[in-house]
Structure formats: structure tokens, C-alpha cells
Write a structure and sequence with these properties.
Number of strands: 23
Order of helices and strands: HHEEEEEEEEEEEEEEEEEEEEEEE
Number of helices: 2
Helix content: under 10%
Radius of gyration: 22 Å
Structural class: mainly beta
Shape: globular
Length: 339
């Protein structure tokens, strides 16, 4: 009996020891990784609205997961889109990528009824703030929500239990209750700004808590502005890049300013419309000495379903700057950033 008891006591320790010494093959099998092979970047899922975050020596890429549903191809009025969750990928070299899976779903906001849209994650201090758009119910309409996590891959939880921005707070302009979508955030020292909007470009300062507005909401007059703003700064220049009216489809334009207070000077087109896609959405990052423009097109086929207005695919190409600080036009390529 004594020998049997000793063996039983040793079994958990042996199992733990064996479990802690996995082979390379077993570790690889447990980790979802893939190698970048050109555009689109992600090949096994439809992905849209890319938002990069550089954190230390790693780049994290947040996307909406476009999913097919029966009847989608004949849907209209916004029903063509079916983003059910937000996904996260990361890399330390832009070539080998880790798939971290879903980080949040729209119904994780208890005040929301669904409909995931474009998002961005930013880091302040030791917290990660996730700004996104969902369909609110009181008041009804698109709302900007904010969630928070201790890690770039989550878990993210609703930070305030209500919308950060709702339709009753903004001018009910040309897009009506579609106004409050596509948030982007720029942090500079102790200051932070939130920009968003469809049809109208809104801008507001955030309080240091990152979960409430600080002052009035202003409207920026940008030529051809549609949606999908992205804020970034390089040197002494502030950049606001956005989806604009193109030739029957959206393209990406941008404006620059000497400060977040403006004035904002329109600089024209950064890149033209995306292949097979009505929408396009910018995400810009500098990573390990190189600059990148993330966007989406709709050229991918997954499980026999071809790309469409609501079945998009994230891509990346190199971004350049002229000596005066203006961004050089980006040509979208299938090769992407392959060397």
C-alpha cells in the first residue's frame, strides 16, 4: 500500500514534468502561426478595417472578421456587412504572424445589440484601450464604445458600461444615425484625441482617463470625407488619413496640420480605390524603421465565397515620405512587402 501511495503521489509530478518539456513540434502545433506571402495578408478568413499597434518589439494588428451568411449577396442597406467579432494578429518581423483569435465581440458591450465595425487599440501607461463601433439601443444608432485590457491580446472588457459617444451627442448630419463610427485615437504625452465619423468628421479631446470626452466635439471640414479616419504624427506634422469619395468607390486621402488644433491642409489622394471593394480603410504604423500602410480590398476567396462589399481582405504595402514630410502616393500591390 505504501508503494502504491507513493506511485500515486508521483504521477501528477511526472505528468507536470512531461507537460513542461514539450518538443518543438508540439509547441508549433499549439501556436497558430503563418508566413506572410503577399497580399492579402490573412488568407483563411475575410478581414477588414486594419488597425496596427506597435508595442515594444512587436506589431499587433486588429481587424474586423467579415463573415459570410446565406442571402448576403442580395442584401443592401448595410446588411451586406457581417462583422461578428474582432481578431488580433501579431508579428515581430512582418513576415511570421501569430493568430491570437477573437479578442472581443459586439455583444460584450451589454448596452449594444450587435454589429461590429472599425476599431483601434492604443496603449497608455500599462493599459490597452479598445475603441470601436457597435449598434446601441438607447439611444438607437451607431455608438463608439471603449473597452480596456491589461494585455494587447485581451481579454478586453467594457470600460464604462455605456457608449463613449452616441447619436444624441453629435450633429445628425448627412449620414444620420450612421454618423458615429470608425474611431481613431492619437496619444501624445498626457494628451489624447478621438476622431470618428461617417459623412461628418468629428474630433474631441479625451480626458486622462481615456474613457470620457474633455470639452466640446468639433467638426473638421475635409474635402470628400466619407469615413475611416486614422490619426498619426511624424516629426512635427500631424496626419489625418481617411476614406474619401473616389470614382464610384472610396479611395484614401489625407490632410496635415501643425497641431491637433489645425489648420488642416488637404493633401489629396494617398492611394486609389481598392480592388473589388467599395470601401477602403487606412491603418498606418512605423515599425522597426519602416513605414506601412494597411488597408483592405476584396480579392480573396474563402470556402468558395469570393470577395464582396462585406467580404474584404486586409493588405499591407510600404509607405514613404517626401523630404517635406508629405506622404508619397502608395501603389497597391499583390506582392506587398515581400522583398
Amino acid at each position: 500500500m505504501k508503494h502504491s501511495s507513493c506511485i500515486l503521489l508521483l504521477l501528477p509530478l511526472l505528468a507536470a514534468a512531461c507537460g513542461g518539456s514539450k518538443t518543438t513540434e508540439e509547441k508549433t502545433a499549439d501556436t497558430k502561426t503563418f508566413t506572410y506571402s503577399g497580399n492579402p495578408l490573412v488568407r483563411d478568413k475575410f478581414t477588414a478595417d486594419p488597425a496596427p499597434l506597435v508595442d515594444g518589439d512587436r506589431l499587433y494588428l486588429y481587424v474586423g472578421h467579415d463573415e459570410y451568411y446565406p442571402g448576403q449577396d442580395s442584401a443592401s442597406g448595410g446588411k451586406e456587412f457581417n462583422i461578428t467579432e474582432w481578431l488580433c494578429y501579431s508579428t515581430d518581423d512582418m513576415h511570421t504572424w501569430t493568430d491570437h483569435g477573437p479578442i472581443m465581440r459586439p455583444t460584450d458591450f451589454k448596452w449594444a445589440v450587435g454589429e461590429a465595425w472599425a476599431s483601434q487599440v492604443v496603449k497608455k501607461g500599462d493599459k490597452y484601450y479598445f475603441y470601436t463601433t457597435v449598434q446601441g439601443q438607447d439611444p438607437l444608432g451607431k455608438c463608439v464604445g471603449v473597452a480596456v485590457a491589461d494585455s494587447p491580446t485581451g481579454p478586453f472588457t467594457d470600460a464604462i458600461g455605456r457608449p463613449l459617444v452616441s447619436d444624441d451627442m453629435t450633429d445628425n448630419g448627412p449620414r444620420g444615425w450612421w454618423n458615429d463610427i470608425d474611431p481613431t485615437v492619437l496619444i501624445e504625452g498626457d494628451s489624447a484625441w478621438l476622431c470618428w465619423g461617417n459623412g461628418t468628421c468629428f474630433l474631441a479631446r479625451l480626458k486622462p482617463d481615456m474613457t470620457s470626452l474633455d470639452g466640446e466635439i468639433s467638426v473638421l471640414d475635409l474635402p470628400g470625407y466619407v469615413e475611416g479616419p486614422w490619426l498619426h504624427k511624424r516629426g512635427d506634422i500631424y496626419y489625418l488619413t481617411y476614406a474619401a469619395h473616389g470614382a464610384g468607390k472610396e479611395r484614401i486621402d489625407y490632410a496635415t496640420a501643425p497641431s491637433m488644433d489645425g489648420p488642416w491642409t488637404p493633401r489629396g489622394m494617398l492611394t486609389d480605390s481598392a480592388a473589388n471593394s467599395f470601401t477602403i480603410h487606412p491603418g498606418i504604423a512605423e515599425f522597426k524603421g519602416k513605414n506601412y500602410l494597411f488597408y483592405h480590398n476584396a480579392t480573396l476567396t474563402v470556402d468558395g465565397h469570393s470577395g464582396a462589399i462585406g467580404r474584404r481582405s486586409v493588405c499591407v504595402d510600404t509607405l514613404g515620405y517626401a523630404t517635406d514630410g508629405l506622404m508619397l502616393p502608395v501603389v497597391q500591390t499583390e506582392k506587398g512587402i515581400l522583398e
